[in-house]
Amino acid sequence: MTLALSSEPFARPQGDRRGRARMAGWVLALVLVLTSSVSLNVGASGVNLLEIIGTLARGDALDARTRLILFDIRLPRLAMGILVGAALAVSGAVMQGLFRNPLADPGLVGVGAGAGLGAITAIVLGASLPVTMQAGLGIYLVPVAAFLGGWLTTILLYQISTSRGRTSVAVMLLGGIAMGALAGALSGILIYMADDAQLRDLTFWGLGSLAGATWTKIWIAGPLIVLALAAAPFLARALNGLALGEAPAAHLGIPVQRMKNIAILSVAAATGAAVAVSGGIGFIGIVVPHLLRLLIGPDHRYLLPNAALLGASLLIAADMVARVVIAPAELPIGIVTATLGGPFFLWILLRNRTLLDM
């Protein structure tokens, strides 16, 4: 008896989308470059990137106004958009892999609720702090309070969901809901105490914006975000194994508990830093990972880096829309992302409603 051998013995199995995932990475990198270039041209000042490049190519110096707009306003805003968008998208992909649920987002670990409570506390009660502390923190009082609030909430939730050295994902999910409700109640009390000016600040911060981007904020939040993003690829194989379940993943030699610890801390660091400098920006962490899973598959080795690229591009594009839609005023970026992400989230719910029925 003879066996018919394939002329392509090393052909990829049916359904293998690694080639598509690699191509998507190059395409998304190009999209990020193009989006960033367009973003540097958008603004009420009329400063044009092509004119700036032409001026520099001729060897001429830029005038003070152009240098101020480009290097102190637009470039910090672009850099913050890239960092925040990548942080939210990658955090969402990690949380969805950890919870094995396409509806998971970074808010499940309590970062968003804690950061919001910290920011509201700083805005409403900041004037009652010692004068030396107010002078020392200055405009960074709200970001610092937001980051500390997010981290403290995450640590508390982690302690609640960990018993005998093992972290329960189910307890963390339910605990995150409870912590969010409690933080919302405390925030409501503070909002009731706020005056009109503080209410305006609270509304604008809660809807998110990149308008306050500065190099100082980037140097503060950037290292945390970069470290968290750098740790994410090391979680890829573990998250792939976890898709089979915790017990099968452990039998495959995956250190499940250590992976949970690193994932939760990375998400808390990235999301906490992002929310602290940009406010509450929703749906990036849900929309980006799920869209990529439809396009390139669930392999986290490709999903995580592509999520960083697409998240950064999407947030930069949303920021451009926020700047021009009611120019010269500026729309909070959270409104733009919610307008795009809300219908997509409903579509995810409808698509997965058979899985969610209990």
Q: What would you note in describing this structure?
A:
The protein is 73% helix and 1% strand. It has 358 residues and is mostly helical. Strands 1-2 form a two-stranded antiparallel ribbon. Helix 4 runs antiparallel to helix 8 (196-207) and helix 9 runs antiparallel to helix 12 (256-278).
Question: What are the SSEs and their pairings?
Answer:
Layout lengths: L17 H24 L7 H9 L6 H36 L11 H15 L5 H7 L3 H21 E2 L2 E2 L1 H25 L2 H12 L7 H17 L4 H7 L3 H6 L4 H23 L5 H13 L3 H25 L8 H19 L1 H4 L2
Antiparallel strand pairs: 1-2
How many β-strands, per DSSP?
2
What's the rounded overall pLDDT mean? 81
Helix content: over 70%
CATH superfamily of the domain at 101-280: ABC transporter involved in vitamin B12 uptake, BtuC
Rg, please?
22 Å
CATH topology name of the domain at 101-280, in short, is ABC transporter involved in vitamin B12 uptake, BtuC
β-strand percent reads under 5%
The residue ranges in which pLDDT falls below 50 over 5 or more consecutive positions are 1-14
What is the CATH C-level name of the domain at 101-280?
A: Mainly Alpha
Number of helices: 16
Secondary-structure-based class equals mainly alpha
CATH architecture of the domain at 101-280: Orthogonal Bundle
Largest sheet: spatial strand order: 1-2
